[in-house]
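RETRY 2/3 - previous attempt timed out on the joint model. Re-submitting the same 411-residue input unchanged.
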Amino acid sequence: MEDPKRLAEFEARIARGETIEPKDWMPEKYRRQLVRMMSQHAHSELVGMLPEANWITRAPSLRRKMSLMAKVQDEAGHGLYIYCGTETLGVDRHDLTNQLLAGTAKYSSIFNYPTLTWADIGAVGWLVDGAAIVNQTMLAKASYGPYARAMVRICKEENFHKRQGFEIMSILSAGTPEQHAMAQDALDRWWWPSLMMFGPHDKDSPNSDELLRWGIKKKSNDELRQRFVNLTVGQAKAINLTIPDAGMKFNEATKNWEFSDINWDDFWRVVKGDGPCNRERLAARRSAHANGEWVRAAAEAHAQKHARKESAA
Amino acid sequence: MSSGTDNQGPLWEVFLQPPNGGAHEHAGSVHAPDAEMALQNARDVYARRSEAVSVWVVPSGAITASTPEDMGPFFEPGNDKPYRHPQFYKVPQGVRFS
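RETRY 2/3 succeeded.
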């Protein structure tokens, strides 16, 4: 058990809105919750490169290809920002990498769905990055300094991701009937998984209370999900696409767009490893890591050779 | 499969100087086997959008930092000297200073 006096001091600091820094005292569970959440977030950035990298060679124009490459490169950078944040908590990145490769680490389930057509790249940027922005804007105020600062950096960069995706959807939707149908089909498939990105309902979310109490999260899963829905309804309307939820209606009193029940069976199936692409993503990640081995070995040999030369001189 | 060897290289802290003439500021960290590659990694990870005109990389272990436990006594010499701030001094009303 934690020393109640130190715990009370810690909680008072959180209540005053102070930032917790790496060398500050923190309850062991706070540290564990952060490592869990930040490493899952970092893994998600890395795995998130895979469904999009899949379309780099088939992007319909040079402009689209450049954007997509820059976006995928950003995702790698975002993963590294957050891994570097976990290292301030005494975790070795090497161990996290091995957990991901061994298949024992969790990452966002959204990346276990396939990107079947070019419109999916639009839908991913618009909806998946859009949902991530809602979540990360909240996390930029998290109580742990290194995590919050990584989020500030990420939020600055993510807006480009969302806008390039929305532009793809908007142009497809206004194109030929086939192109419009392709955009609608992508929205149909990505809508519900995007809503699930915010996690289980508050009442079914075992970590939420603690995360909120310690300021790691500032808003609940359901609040964030509602914010995302409210933002997205108008965007879909503007580009003449229909959100695949016939039961959706505007509540005048709350000013919220109310939506139908989410199919949580599907969510848990994908979380537990049985989504359409879980195995494929892990295989791709492992192969990328194995193919990079010679680069890491060569870099290490180069550094050692130069260190020897310097000490001999 | 999972790589048993740890060849990610040691950790380096990254400091960027923004183009507007500000001082170098801590941005995060990178792994790299030597200083030259640490600089290149720092550029790719933290300066993809003209954020910097200069980058420093420092081996993380080379940084000596004050500890939170000492924070009170360590900064105490500066905390009880309000006369070091301009607000400590009274100026007749109506005199324009800045």
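Chain A touches chain B through 37 residues (CB under 8 Å). Closing ticket.
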